[in-house]
């Protein structure tokens, strides 16, 4: 059976001292985890956190990656640079980047492509806004977002991680019910199955106010293979509880 993946998204939080304290608390509390674990940290802390988690079960991820290979793209970080720094994952298409940085489906697909080409696993985020859900467009939106990534990445598609993150549930304290989340995950799985014989291998994470209290129920759904965890990943006891729920 494939292992679940619990990935923390620290967003724009942290400091050298706070990161060290958080990672030390996580390492002290990890007891033979039954799932894969990652923390996706601000770019400036990738090297620090990579050193802190060396020889541990925790992998490190970036929160974004450039769609370009190299060159005159001030401020960008390439997939090759992430790979060289020992970074395993890169989140692409997080709703905050789609919203505040106007990243299109096509750009997200290129970012996933660059990551895959360099051996960095993209965590591809898809999800609908509240208005889209209320208009009955959830399925159409997530399928459109994933279709762009499938179209651009063809035969490599079974190497990605997908994160279903309903925008209305991110950082709001509102969580999709396990049934709502499972329904969308099943749609995404079917879409992947039409593109690759290895769709069962793809980890489809749920993200959106996952916490110590709701994780077990969400993670028990058939097509929920882990979590992308924002706020609760900044508190060691909460993140450890979610990890413990991921069996
Ligand atoms: C996220 O930022 O990916 C996320 C899911 O945030 P939160 O858990 O805080 O809703």
What keywords describe this structure?
40% helix, alpha/beta, single chain, 247 residues, TIM Barrel, binds phosphoenolpyruvate
Structural topology:
Layout lengths: L4 E5 L6 H14 L6 E5 L5 H7 L5 E5 L16 H6 L4 E4 L2 H6 L4 H13 L3 E6 L3 H5 L3 H16 L7 E4 L13 H16 L10 E4 L7 H5 L6 E4 L6 H10 L2
Parallel strand pairs: 1-2, 1-8, 2-3, 3-4, 4-5, 5-6, 6-7, 7-8
The protein binds phosphoenolpyruvate.
The site of phosphoenolpyruvate has 14 residues, from strand 8.
Q: What class, by secondary structure content?
A: alpha/beta
Number of helices: 10
Q: Hey, roughly how much beta strand do the residues contain?
A: 5-15%
CATH class: Alpha Beta
Main-sheet strand order equals 1-2-3-4-5-6-7-8
CATH superfamily: Aldolase class I
SSE string, helices as H and strands as E: EHEHEHEHHEHHEHEHEH
Instruction: Average the pLDDT over all residues and give the rounded result.
Output: 97
- Per the principal axes of the C-alpha atoms, what is the gross shape? globular
N-to-C CA distance: 10 Å
Rounded radius of gyration (Å): 17 Å
Number of domains: 1
């Amino acid at each position: 059976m494939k292992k679940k993946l619990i990935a923390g998204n620290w967003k724009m939080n942290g400091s050298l001292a706070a990161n060290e304290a958080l990672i030390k608390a996580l390492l002290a509390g990890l007891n033979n985890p039954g799932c894969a674990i990652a923390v996706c940290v601000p770019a400036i802390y990738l090297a620090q956190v990579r050193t802190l988690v060396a020889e541990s079960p925790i992998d490190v991820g970036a929160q974004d990656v450039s769609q370009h290979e190299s060159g005159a793209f001030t401020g960008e970080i390439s997939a090759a640079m992430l790979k060289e720094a020992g970074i395993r994952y890169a989140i692409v298409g997080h709703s905050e980047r789609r919203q505040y940085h106007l990243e299109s489906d096509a750009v997200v697909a290129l970012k996933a492509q660059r990551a895959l080409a360099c051996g960095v696993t993209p965590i591809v985020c898809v999800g609908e806004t509240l208005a889209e859900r209320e208009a009955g467009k959830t399925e159409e939106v997530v399928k459109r977002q994933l279709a762009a990534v499938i179209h651009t990445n063809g035969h490599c598609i079974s190497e990605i991680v997908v994160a279903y993150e309903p925008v209305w549930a991110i950082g709001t304290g509102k969580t999709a019910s396990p049934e709502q989340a499972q329904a969308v995950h099943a749609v995404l799985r079917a879409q992947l199955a039409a593109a690759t014989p290895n769709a069962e291998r793809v980890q489809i994470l749920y993200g959106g106010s996952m916490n110590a209290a709701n994780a077990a129920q969400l993670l028990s759904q058939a097509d929920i293979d882990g979590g992308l965890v924002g706020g609760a990943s900044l508190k060691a006891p909460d993140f450890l509880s979610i990890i413990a729920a991921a069996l």
